[in-house]
Amino acid sequence: MIKLTIPGEPVSASRPRVTGRGFAFIAEPYRSYKKMAHQVIKKQYSAEPMQGTLHVQIKFYRSVQKRVSKVERLRRLSGVHRPTMKPDIDNLFKAVTDACTGVVWKDDNQIVSTKSEKFYSEEPRVEIYVEEL
Predict the structure, then answer these.
(1) Which runs of E-coded beta strand occur in the chain?
(2) Which terms does the UniProt entry file under GO BP (predicted)?
(3) Distance in angstroms (rounded) separating the CA atoms of residues 107 and 116
(4) Residue 29: what pLDDT?
(5) Could you report how far apart the first and last alpha carbons of the chain are, in Å?
C-alpha cells in the first residue's frame, strides 16, 4: 500500500462550463488545484503507473471555520462533528483521482473499490492510500 499526501484545502472537481459560443472550459480553482496536486503526487510517487485493479481510500481534511465557538471547534477537531456541507465527497474524490491519473495509475477505471471520508483538522490536506488487489 502506498500513501500520498496533498497539502492544503481540498478542492472539488467542477463540471466543464459551456459559453454561449459553444466553447467548454474548466473553472480556474479546479484547474489550478488539479495541476498543483498532480505535481505534488509526481514528487511523492516516481514508480511506473500501476496496471492492475486498485482499492483507493481518500481522507479529506478541511480546516475548521473561524466563526464557530471554542467548544464546537474542539468537537470538530476530535471527530465528534464531521463536515456535512459542500463540497460533496464525490466531487472531492473525482478531483483527486483525476490528479493521480497517469502518475499513480494509468486510468481511473482501474479503481474497483473505494472509501472516502471527510474530517476537520488544523492542517488541511488530502491523504490517499492506494492498494493493488
Answers:
(1) 2-7, 17-18, 24-25, 54-62, 111-120, 125-132
(2) DNA recombination; DNA repair
(3) 19
(4) 80
(5) 10
- Rounded CA gap, 95 and 37, in Å? 9
Who contacts 6 (Cβ-Cβ below 8 Å, separation ≥6)? 36, 37, 40, 41, 96, 99, 125, 126, 128
Query: CA Rg, the chain, in Å?
Result: 16
Residue 31, pLDDT score:
86
Contact between residue 54 and residue 107 where contact means Cβ atoms under 8 Å apart: no
This prediction's pTM = 0.89
Could you tell me the three cell numbers for 13? 472537481
| Residue that has been written with the C-alpha cell 472509501 in this structure | 115
47 versus 18: which is more confidently predicted? Answer: 47
- Only one residue has cell 492498494, namely 131
Domains of the chain: 2-132 (3.30.1330.70)
